[in-house]
Amino acid sequence: MAGRQFHTPLLREAGCRVTDVVTTDPGRRAEADADWPGVSVHPDLTALLEASRPDVLVVASPTGRHVEHALAGLDAGIPVVVDKPLALDHAGAAAVAARAETTGTPLTVFQNRRWDAEQLTLARVLAEGQLGDVHRFERRWERWRPVPKNRWRENAVGAGGGLLLDLGPHLVDAAMQLFGPVTGVRAELRALTTPTEDDVFLALDHASGTISHLWAASLVGAPGPRTRVLGSAGAFLVPGHEDSPGPFDVLDPGAGTTGWLVRGTERTPVPTATGGPADFYRDVARWILDGGPPRWTSPTPSPRPRCSTPPAAAPPRAPGRPPRPPAGWTAGEGRPVRDGRETRCGPVRPPRRPPPGCRSRGRRRARGRRPRRARAPGSSRCRRDCPPGRRCSPAWSSTPPPPPAPGGTRA
């Protein structure tokens, strides 16, 4: 089904021709003959590889057989496009990638959603800096399907079925393409109407500081906004999507635009970026047939890092003046900085205080020890206005230290 529903229209639009199809279903054989007159239909992949040598092998079989079919194509020396996901687990994906490197055969994964209008338009908005520093990215793939379909995707437990491996790769790929590598993942998975999971929520912590919230669900009577991106200078909102119609479709900005640039009650329609999913196969053809460089990603920004590395040696400063923050920082940000040698903002150690009701505190005072003095704001142990779980140095405390006494110096 994936071959005819997703790949065939894009191949045709890109000017490619399908020469061979693998299927044992009589109905699909008739559809292949109608779609591509003169096409050769084979009962399995082995028969295809023995009878033909296409320019590209597109693997659109059930997810559980991706590794098997991709390895067969690579061993035959045929460039391979594998539908997402590449494999069920890391070991399978690593095996396919290693075989492609060993045989020197081109390999890529079908991530057509990188060329969706909302992804291309959002990439341009981010590159232009219209949102400032992005702190949250949200994308939903929600549907109202109370009666599930009876397909392998809904029933193949442990063999690639379920929304996590069906729509999850698109959502995660979109987030990582826009906001970079991920350092932490939290997930909620539920099976409400099918044997496989049909209710998925993922939270990704990006190294850039952005947090992505991603949804894929089939039992949602009121699908939420398709895409919402929050930044320090505004927000980007895509109300709906053709694959998941919902109540927010009434906010569609109209033809030639994709989403809104929102600042409170002010909203401005955003012109749609150029490009489309068929560009994937245009790039594949140029890469394989013409030897052109692959362009698997759309133009994306490089988000400004949330943590910067200070220079190895800071310039001298006049006595009595606070240290100068690193380039790109403003005093008072209170963010962690690591340069491999020191941590200017590290985890706060738990205070060494006895629990309530303990008599040790009274005995300490009875022995004449002075109670711990409160530190002045801006001192090396200042905890005022610092991020949760962080301790800041004087240079990056949001509360400036008090000026030194006349005639004195500050350590």
Which structural traits does this protein have?
411 residues, alpha/beta, three-stranded parallel beta sheet, globular, disordered C terminus
Describe the protein in words.
The chain is α/β, with parallel strands linked by helices and 411 residues long. The chain has helices at 2-13, 26-35, 45-51, 66-75, 90-103, 117-127, 152-155, 163-166, 168-179, 279-289, 360-366, and strands at residues 20-22, 40-42, 57-59, 80-83, 107-110, 134-142, 182-190, 199-206, 211-217, 227-231, 234-238, 257-263, 266-271, 345-347, 390-392. Helix 2 links the parallel strand 1 (20-22) and strand 2 (40-42). It is globular, with a radius of gyration of 28 Å. The termini are far apart.
Which structural category do the helix and sheet elements fall into? Answer: alpha/beta
Arithmetic mean of pLDDT = 80
Query: How helix-rich are the residues, as a percent range?
Result: 10-25%
Number of extended strands? 15
Q: Which overall shape is indicated by the principal axes computed on the Cα atoms?
A: globular
Strand order of the largest sheet: 7-8-9-6-10-11-12-13
Q: Taking Cα atoms only, what radius of gyration do you get, to the nearest Å?
A: 28 Å
- SSE topology string: HEHEHEHEHEHEHHHEEEEEEEHEHE
Question: How many strands, what sense, and barrel or not for the largest sheet?
Answer: 8 strands, mixed
Terminal residue distance:
72 Å
Strand content is 15-25%
Low-pLDDT stretches:
297-352, 360-366, 377-384, 390-401, 407-411
Number of helices: 11
